[in-house]
UniProtKB/TrEMBL annotation, chain A:
It is found in: Cytoplasm, Cytosol. GO terms for cellular component: cytoplasm. It is an enzyme of class 2 (transferase). Residues 88-216 form the GST C-terminal domain. It comes from Salix brachista. It comes from the Eukaryota. Residues 3-82 form the GST N-terminal domain. This is Glutathione S-transferase.
From TrEMBL, chain B:
Residues 86-217 form the GST C-terminal domain. It catalyses: RX + glutathione = an S-substituted glutathione + a halide anion + H(+). Gene3D superfamilies: 1.20.1050.10, Glutaredoxin. It comes from the Eukaryota. This is glutathione transferase. It comes from Salix brachista. GO terms for biological process: glutathione metabolic process. Residues 2-81 form the GST N-terminal domain.
Length: 219, 217
């Protein structure tokens, strides 16, 4: 039976980008469906009734929600190539720990960078750099968090790279100056087609962030 | 077999989850009670990022974050499986486990709520969240795992004892047969299981703890 795969997504979402990279790494053919988040489609509401969010993956009529859960599902359902998780249980646990760290700490902080001002902004920048330094420590001398190849943590984190320009411009700081290893890692990931084709143009993302700031009344 | 140690804290629901999982898998372990007001060198060494319990140490390798630890236990001791094998069913199990993690903020708000208005608002939000869990997560199943418990049940276990103790401390009930019949029944069944009953603190101690402790993040 041929697989029918649809991804309900929004172009700028780093969470959506995670799934695009995962599907590309596995060579899965799928239909990309851009969603209007201001006017959610009946399909999105039906397929993600609990959160009503993107990304939502639909595989042969059944939906999987929440980006990291989708990435794990893609890994489990298309086992033949490009495993995202290492085989050693302790290493797998470390991988899950860092992906969870990215969702628990890093994402909340990045939101503050493009919405906050003054002291709150300075605090957010400091916290962000601290998180990146921890991630640099975890990366060590490896080319990717996954070792010789892209892994779960790479897929979880690299989508935020196309938002870095927006963070730097809104926050008036240079991420590369503080964390050159992270930038080197991100550029290395971008050499992979699965990544370069999935990430969005940072300038377009920045324009979108400016729109969001206007809508939220930040400026 | 390499030594297994668990760094925990007696009233912590996160700690209890790990104990139940280890017991279900028949894993021998050494339990180390941490004084959270005076954290041990070992804890700080094994969990430098968050400095929190629980931490599982297997051989000399630490694992932190209770849900990460549960998946580690499941993979390392595969007998008596606690997650479905089918990729889709597994994804659904993880979805509901994460849904519980996402309600952490609602539980914190209930815990911190002082004054009738705040408490009422927090209780209402919690009830909404739990209704979704009951209708779409549990449905008509006896346990989230079906006829027997799995990691999803373990992740919600606090609803069977920790949360009722908090409700008593606050004087507000959310999880009742009237409002959440199936989830309430599930909670009662869960806490009656020997592996759970024998591995949670005495109820009165939980209530006393809930009444005197300052709400922590």
């Amino acid at each position: 039976m041929a697989d029918e795969v649809t991804l309900l997504d929004f172009w700028a979402s780093p969470f959506g980008i995670r799934v695009r990279i995962a599907l590309a790494e596995k060579g899965v053919k799928y239909e990309y469906s851009e969603q209007n988040l201001k006017n959610k489609s009946a399909l999105l509401l039906q397929m993600n009734p609990v959160y009503k969010k993107i990304p939502t993956l639909i595989h042969n009529g059944r939906s999987v929600c929440e980006s990291l859960i989708i990435v794990q599902y893609v890994d489990d359902a298309w086992k033949a190539n490009a495993p995202f998780l290492p085989s050693d249980p302790h290493q797998r646990a470390q991988t899950r720990f860092w992906a969870d760290f990215i969702d628990k700490k890093v994402f909340e902080i990045t939101k503050k960078i493009w919405t906050a001002k003054g002291e709150e902004l300075e605090g957010a920048k400091k916290d962000f750099i601290e998180c990146l330094k921890l991630l640099e420590g975890e990366l060590g001398e490896k080319p990717y968090f996954g070792g010789e190849n892209l892994g779960y943590v790479d897929v979880a984190f690299v989508p935020f790279y196309c938002w870095f320009y927006a963070y730097e411009t809104c926050g008036k700081f240079s991420i590369e100056a503080e964390c050159p290893k992270i930038i080197a890692w991100a550029k290395r990931c971008m050499k992979k087609e699965s990544v370069s084709r999935s990430l969005e143009d940072p300038k377009k993302v920045y324009e979108f962030v400016l729109e969001l700031r206007k809508r939220l009344g930040v400026d | 077999m390499a030594e297994v140690k668990l760094y925990g804290f007696w009233p912590s629901l996160f700690s209890h989850r790990i104990i139940w999982a280890l017991k279900l898998k028949g894993v021998e372990y050494e339990y180390i009670e941490e004084d959270l007001s005076n954290k041990s060198e070992s804890l700080l060494k094994y969990n430098p990022v968050y400095k929190k319990i629980p931490v599982l140490v297997h051989g000399d390798k630490p694992i932190a974050e209770s849900l990460v630890i549960l998946e580690y236990i499941e993979e390392t001791w595969p007998d008596n499986p606690l997650l479905p094998k089918d990729p889709y069913e597994r994804a659904m199990a993880r979805f509901w486990i994460q849904y519980g993690a996402n309600t952490g903020a609602a539980f914190s708000a209930f815990n911190r709520g002082s004054g009738e208005d705040q408490l009422e608002k927090a209780a209402k939000e919690l009830l909404e969240s739990l209704k979704i869990l009951e209708e779409q997560g549990l449905g008509d199943k006896k346990f989230f795992g079906g006829e027997s418990i799995n990691l999803v049940d373990i992740s919600y276990g606090a609803l069977g004892y920790w949360f009722p103790a908090l409700e008593e401390a606050k004087g507000v009930k959310v999880l009742e047969p009237r409002t959440l019949p199936r989830l309430h029944a599930w909670a009662k069944n869960f806490v009656e299981l020997p592996v759970v009953k024998e591995n949670i603190p005495a109820y009165d101690n939980m209530v006393a703890y809930a009444m005197k402790r300052p709400a922590r993040n």
